[in-house]
């Protein structure tokens, strides 16, 4: 097969070079966008009188035929034609003859590949945003459903203060909401038309880039032809957003793994989302959650990979940049798969309400409430902290819980303590009283969910 660029060459490309330089094995994924971009380009060329309208019509018809052939799996992709752009162009010329060669007027593969990947990513990011929205809805629904469940809140993985399970779930909902916002923000910089920049310098031909932008639904047009063929930071931004999303997912996955252990026994994962052991018959393993945690490393790797590829590249296009695609494709697949698995798994988790509630009340988790009770009695917080610390020490030494102490025992630590102290050390009382904005009281969490749902709409 003759190469579209063979004119100045006398020797045939080495086989190893074809293997080494090809990208058709993975960039074929861009075929739809490549054709869509070419059709818009052909329309513009005809409108501007750069190519005859008749030829443009024939080209567009040919491109549409190729579209159907690829869709039906009848198209033969050829490695020796390197990439998706040349595969489609060669097929077009085969189909419509020499006039097919007019399509590449005022265009280069450099702006073409930038266009294709922007069109591709625009579609995928919109889908990721809509999946994130589903995930957020799932979490808000769960938060609403489990408003009565109290659990231990942790710092340093040590029981700290009782909280509502709903509050804990909503913490993740908030993270995923910021992720959605971040992807939406990245979309503004993805949605920029690079086509018309040509190889790097623009063209002497009277093109109309605004018309192409309009046809392809781009909100912005790149301002600098050199920047626009060598810029990949819109991809890096996508990979960063994805890495942060995966980091959030990994934290949640880690908690699900911990919570489903015998030691915590807070939850039971659905059978359909766990796997067994090939040797230990009793085992039920949280593999899905583990893989969510594990795949996070893979997405970080993709970000690192492209950052490293781009580092130190001189302007403008360099073939190194062909290495941008696999990390991006892999990330899109991983993020979508992870989101779909989360959306389906989360609502099926069973929570062990009694176990969560019981552990929430242990480990002096309401000691801070005693300190705040003393503050309300006029004692400076540092002093109140010290008094409460001594109460806890006393309980530890005498194997007692805070609720076991008699009022005279309490009074021996501070005369300001009255019998109403018992109202402040109960688990539910403690949670109910956290009425500060954004706090864990049912009242506040209900309001939080309400505001959250409003943002989701
Ligand atoms: N397959 C190439 C890529 O993905 C397309 C652009 C090639 N341009 C060039 N001048 N070799 O980056």
UniProtKB/TrEMBL annotation:
Main location: cytoplasm
Enzymatic class: lyase
Protein name in UniProt: Argininosuccinate lyase
SUPFAM superfamilies in the cross-refs: L-aspartase-like (SSF48557)
Domain of life: Bacteria
Keyword Lipoprotein: no
Catalytic reaction(s) noted: 2-(N(omega)-L-arginino)succinate = fumarate + L-arginine
Location(s), subcellular: Cytoplasm
EC number: 4.3.2.1
Keyword terms, alphabetized: Amino-acid biosynthesis, Arginine biosynthesis, Cytoplasm, Lyase
A GO BP entry: L-arginine biosynthetic process via ornithine
Domain Argininosuccinate lyase C-terminal: 364-432
Domain Fumarate lyase N-terminal: 7-301
């Amino acid at each position: 097969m003759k190469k579209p660029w063979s004119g100045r060459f006398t020797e045939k490309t080495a086989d190893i070079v074809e293997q080494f330089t090809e990208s058709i094995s993975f960039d074929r994924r861009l075929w739809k966008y490549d054709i869509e971009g070419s059709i818009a380009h052909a329309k513009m060329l005809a409108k501007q009188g750069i190519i005859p309208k008749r030829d443009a019509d024939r080209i567009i018809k040919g491109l549409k035929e190729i579209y159907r052939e690829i869709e039906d799996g009848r198209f033969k992709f050829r490695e020796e034609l390197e990439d998706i752009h040349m595969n489609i162009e060669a097929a077009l010329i085969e189909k419509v003859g020499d006039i097919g060669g007019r399509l590449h007027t005022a265009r280069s593969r450099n702006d073409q590949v930038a266009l294709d990947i922007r069109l591709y990513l625009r579609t995928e990011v919109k889908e990721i945003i809509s999946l994130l929205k589903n995930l957020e809805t799932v979490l808000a629904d769960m938060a609403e459903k489990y408003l009565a469940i109290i659990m231990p809140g942790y710092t340093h993985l040590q029981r700290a203060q009782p909280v509502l399970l709903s509050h804990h779930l909503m913490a993740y909902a908030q993270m995923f909401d910021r992720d959605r916002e971040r992807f939406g923000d990245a979309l503004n910089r993805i949605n920029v038309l690079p086509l018309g920049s040509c190889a790097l310098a623009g063209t002497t031909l009277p093109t109309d880039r605004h018309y192409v932008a309009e046809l392809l639904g781009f909100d912005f047009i790149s301002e600098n032809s050199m920047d626009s063929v060598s810029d990949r930071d819109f991809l890096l931004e996508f990979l960063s957003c994805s890495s942060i999303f995966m980091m959030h997912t990994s934290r949640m996955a880690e908690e699900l793994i911990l919570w489903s252990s015998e030691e915590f026994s807070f939850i039971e994962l659905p059978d359909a989302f766990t796997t067994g052991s090939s040797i230990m018959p009793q085992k039920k393993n949280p593999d899905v959650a583990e893989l969510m945690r594990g795949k996070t490393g893979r997405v970080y790797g993709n970000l690192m990979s492209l950052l490293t590829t781009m580092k130190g590249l001189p302007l403008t296009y360099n073939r190194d940049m062909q290495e941008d695609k696999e990390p991006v494709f892999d990330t899109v697949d991983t993020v979508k798969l992870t989101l779909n698995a989360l959306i389906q798994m989360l609502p099926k988790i069973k929570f062990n309400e009694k176990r969560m509630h019981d552990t929430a009340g242990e480990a002096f988790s309401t000691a801070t409430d005693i300190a705040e009770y003393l503050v309300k009695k006029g004692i400076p917080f540092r002093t109140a902290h010290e008094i409460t610390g001594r109460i806890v020490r006393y309980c530890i030494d005498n194997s007692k819980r805070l609720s076991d102490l008699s009022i005279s025992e309490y009074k021996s630590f501070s005369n300001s303590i009255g019998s109403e102290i018992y109202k402040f050390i109960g688990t539910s009382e403690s949670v109910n009283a956290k009425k500060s904005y954004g706090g864990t009281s049912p009242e506040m969490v209900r309001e939080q969910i309400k505001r959250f749902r409003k943002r989701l709409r």
